[in-house]
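call fold(seq) -> tokens
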Amino acid sequence: MDETSPARQWRVPASLPAAKLAGAVLLIALGLLFADGDAVRLALALLAAAVVAGSAVRDLIAPVRLAVDPTGLTVVHGFAGHRLLPWTTIEAITVDRRPRLGLTSEVLEIDAGESLHLFGRFELGTTPEEVAAELRAARPVR
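ret:
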């Protein structure tokens, strides 16, 4: 990637926050349906729905999880902030694959020395392997 190349961004798919919000509504409905007057069941359903809805809000506020440009990588930091990682701080860009229950999960790992940033398929909108290849191609030659 040269100095005039535009930045490339990877973001949460637009359908994911909608699915999470629908899941939160479903949790509330199930909590109301199966509480049978038990405040603890209802409270647990409401708590689970709040966590799922909070995740959906994060997806709506900060949909871009990773961006690359000639200066380095910008990663999501905290709930909805962003942090620039200059290329000089990036030690490794790898994809971790782990088989589990007959399926293989992939996670993009960006090692920036004192911090490790992990991104899954649903945060990037594509496979971690494709993103890793683009990031390695964009990285300036040392």
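Helices lie at 15-34, 39-61, 121-124, 128-138.
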